[in-house]
Each structure stands twice: as structure tokens, then as C-alpha cells.
Design goal:
Layout (H helix, E strand, L loop, with lengths): L4 H11 L5 E6 L2 E6 L2 E7 L2 E4 L16 E2 L8 E4 L5 H14 L2
Antiparallel strand pairs: 1-2, 2-3, 3-4, 4-6, 5-6
Helix pairs in contact: 1-2
Length: 100
């Protein structure tokens, strides 16, 4: 199932307070970038973030479940609350600050 481009744009806009946020299409889905760093994936209309220890205490309880974003991938946090702009941008900013 391909990801809806409108949803991708919505997630980019929601995360934009975190910095320079962009999404690039890769293999039918999208990589999410913040300030030039890969911070997440948008696959099958869901936002996924790597399970970094710095991220876990910031997650809403409903977003602490993990599952792989695609077959063969390691489990990632599945972020379901993409409508909360402050929350999404805070998570994306934390990812950008903690990843290399």
C-alpha cells in the first residue's frame, strides 16, 4: 500500500516547528528529514520513529507500541497522534538532536 502524498505533506507541516523538515519518496514510501538528518519514516500512511531511549519518555502512552514500518525492518515507534502539532514537532526535534 502506497502512502498518501497529502498525508506526507500534512506530517511535514505538523513537524515544521522542529526545523527544516522535508520528506523524500523512497521505494513507494517516504523518509522524513529534519535539518538534513533522517528522523523517521512514513510508510502505509503511518509515521514511524526509531526507538531511541531519549524519545521513549516523551511519547504518549498510545504511541509506545512498536512495529516494523515494512517487512524485514526492525520495530519502530508507531506515532498515531499526528494531529497534535506541538507533540509531533517536539518528537521530530528530539530525533534530529539525538541522531547523528
Amino acid at each position: 500500500m502506497a502512502t498518501n502524498a497529502d498525508l506526507v505533506q500534512y506530517i511535514v507541516e505538523q513537524a515544521s516547528p522542529a526545523g527544516e523538515v522535508a520528506a523524500k519518496k523512497m521505494f513507494g514510501d517516504y523518509c522524513l528529514y529534519c535539518n538534513g538528518k533522517v528522523v523517521g519514516l512514513i510508510c502505509d500512511d503511518y509515521l514511524y520513529l526509531k526507538p531511541l531511549k531519549q524519545l521513549q519518555p516523551l511519547l504518549h502512552e498510545c504511541d509506545q507500541q512498536m512495529r516494523p514500518p515494512y517487512d524485514g525492518a526492525k520495530p519502530h515507534y508507531l506515532i498515531t497522534d499526528v494531529d497534535d502539532r506541538d507533540y509531533v514537532s517536539m518528537l521530530v526535534k528530539t530525533m534530529a538532536e539525538t541522531t547523528r
